[in-house]
Structures are given as C-alpha cells and as structure tokens.
Design goal:
Layout lengths: L12 E4 L2 H10 L4 E6 L2 E6 L2 E7 L3 H5 L2 E5 L3 H10 L6 E3 L5 E6 L5 E6 L3
Parallel strand pairs: 1-4, 5-8
Antiparallel strand pairs: 2-3, 3-4, 6-7, 7-8
C-alpha cells in the first residue's frame, strides 16, 4: 500500500438564487437524490456524482458556470431527461466526445459526456 495522496473525487459547488428550485430540478428532472439540505446549502447525488448547491444572489455567476460530468450511456441518459421535460440533445464534438448539455434552473451548464474511444 502506498502512502501517496490521491485525488478521489471532485465535488462541484454550483450557485443558485433559489436553492430549493434547483434541488427540485435535479431530483425531479435529472434523477438525482437529495443527500442533505442545511440553511441554503445542499447536496444532490446520482450514481457516482455529487453536486453541492449554494445560495448566491447573482444569477450572472451561475450563467458563467460550466461543469463536465463523465457518464456512460449518454443517449439513454438524454432520453430519460427528455421524458422529464428537459430540452437537451447529444452532440458529437470535434475532439470525439458525445456531449449532453443541460442548463439548470439557476443557469448553470452541466455537460454530461461520454468518450466512446
């Protein structure tokens, strides 16, 4: 066993003017589960992903925020999101990934992507 440090997981913190509305979007539209919610700060999780949501009054901050999340089965994920009323589509990128961009209620852009190579 090595004593070398490891980066185990990245947990993005995303801003939202209305934390509860954003929680509802992630749970009802994207299939996440509420992990915790305390005084304007919350965590939602799905499979191996964990996202923290915090209150921030400036929507402009959210609209300039983008996160990428590695997935498998991106086409099936898109179909699931679409069935829940999320407008999204998978796009092939020039660098080879299949990207599924979603804008949450706060204006944050999350790109769920798969690298088929």
């Amino acid at each position: 066993m090595s004593d070398s440090p490891q980066i185990v997981q990245a947990v993005p913190q995303i801003p939202a003017e209305d934390v509860q509305a954003n929680i509802d979007f992630y749970v009802q539209k994207l299939g996440f589960e509420l992990d915790f919610a305390i005084d304007g700060y919350a965590g939602v999780k799905r499979d191996g992903a964990l996202i923290h949501i915090y209150h921030h009054a400036d929507r402009g901050l959210a609209e300039m925020t983008m996160y990428r999340i590695v997935v498998t089965g991106v086409h099936a994920l898109a179909e699931t999101f679409q069935k829940h009323g999320v407008k999204c589509e998978v796009k092939q990128q020039p660098w080879g990934t299949l990207d599924l961009a979603v804008i949450d209620t706060a204006g944050n852009c999350l790109t769920f992507y798969e690298d088929p190579s």
